[in-house]
Amino acid sequence: MPKTITLLGSTGSIGTQSLDVARMHGYRIFGLAANSRVEILQKQIEEFHPEYVAVVDPAACEKLDAALAGTANAPKLLKGPEGLRTLAAMDGPDVVLNAVVGIAGLPASLAAIESGHDLALANKESLVTGGHLVTDAVKKYGVKLLPVDSEHSAIFQCLQGAGGNQPVRLLLTASGGPFRTWTREQMQNATRAQALKHPNWSMGAKITIDSASMFNKALEIIEAHWLFDMPPEKIQVVVHPQSIVHSAVEFADGAVLAQLGVPDMRVPIAYAMTYPRRIPTGSKPLDLFSIGTLTFEPGDPVRFPALRLAGECLNAGGAACTILNGANEMAVAAFLRDEIPFGAISRIVEGTLEACGAMPADTLEDIFHADLEARRVAKETAEKLK
Ligand code: NAD
Ligand code: MG
């Protein structure tokens, strides 16, 4: 049966790869949403004929409205963050795929779940900032939460064969990013171009910088905690530069199950779209002979403080993970504008966590309040470093 999908964040790296999978299998697109890239959205509308399109940036929404004027069968437009939430909640799709970047994805994830949709989740920030709200809602509304992040998809795939046995440990793999072998001193003044050069994956700018600082892995430890109900001390980061083993799970008897494949996000995207069915994705077959060697090394929390901060924030509870995420988003944006050195990213995050202290995260309002406060403090700290 062809699937019907609502795709949030359609103009991004995950969004466009999701449309590659949809195109390959003739899936219907009910709704598309993006922040602002009108030209790409327009092309996507021409090809996939969605019924609704949400554009978060109001000026971009007006531009798209003007561009579509007079077009036959133009989709209905929804504007702003409210439009994104409305689209996420609409009946029509079999699955809502959330590939928005940042905390902006959280209200949409909740809206999709609360209206009874299965949620394919690439937006890890939904779980990092609102993990308890998302997992509680998934239980309450009885929907499926299908991870798109490659490591979490790998763990999810391994658990399919687990017969209900709970793993005793998760082995979360990481490529190590472009600075895997750099010293802390070398990393301090790494340039934007160096940080954007990921060895194995082609991704959006934010997550690429996060891979270089290993804040991506920090966010993924938090994501894994919520998805698989694991305490941080049972989530081991395994640096694996070839990115062939996408993660593994260990059971009480010592057995370890891993999921392997060439690095290609279309595989976890398709699995989340069509779970539990597997479909062709266009991914190259894995040729173990040409790879020859798979290597593994421990993550280094001294050179990459993010790896230590994830566990500390999870153990602190409250809004600590939201503060980590907000401060990091701010610091990465400042780094991408060449305003701060690479080494300042983790210092800004750590300084912001200290300055903000304990904050509650009981409601969506609490979470957005903590996020705004984290951004304010992180911005102040970044200004001082300019
Ligand atoms: P990207 O920057 O390429 O795309 C982000 C998308 O989100 C765009 O469509 C953009 O229009 C939309 N967007 C941005 N701000 C928005 C807002 N305020 N409201 C609504 N939409 C907004 O990012 P990406 O690399 O595709 O990553 C998307 C998500 O998937 C992130 O959470 C990332 O951590 C996760 N992820 C990405 C990859 C990857 O390979 N790219 C892998 C694993 C997980
Ligand atoms: Mg990942």
Structure in words:
- The protein contains 17 helices and twelve strands.
- The protein is α/β, with parallel strands linked by helices.
- The strands form two sheets. The chain has a seven-stranded parallel β-sheet with strand order 4-3-2-1-5-6-7, with helices on both faces.
- A hairpin with a 5-residue loop joins strand 10 (245-250) and strand 11.
- Helix 6 (125-141) packs across helix 15 (320-336), helix 15 (320-336) runs antiparallel to helix 16 and helix 15 (320-336) packs across helix 17 (364-385).
- The mean pLDDT is 96.
- Bound molecules: nicotinamide-adenine-dinucleotide and magnesium ion (MG).
Strand count, sense and barrel status of the largest sheet are: 7 strands, parallel
Strand order of the largest sheet: 4-3-2-1-5-6-7
Could you say which small molecules are bound to this protein? nicotinamide-adenine-dinucleotide, magnesium ion
Distinct helical segment count: 17
Q: What string gives the helices and strands in order?
A: EHEHEHEHEHEHEHEHHHHEEEHHEHHHH
For the termini, the CA-CA separation is: 55 Å
Q: Which secondary-structure class do the elements indicate?
A: alpha/beta
Q: Calculate the mean pLDDT score and round it.
A: 96
- Please state the overall shape, judged from the principal axes of the Cα atoms: globular
Number of DSSP strand runs: 12
Strand content: 5-15%
Tell me roughly what share of residues is in helical segments. 40-55%
Instruction: Please compute the radius of gyration using only Cα atoms.
Output: 20 Å
Which ranges are low-confidence, i.e. pLDDT below 50, for 5 or more consecutive residues?
none
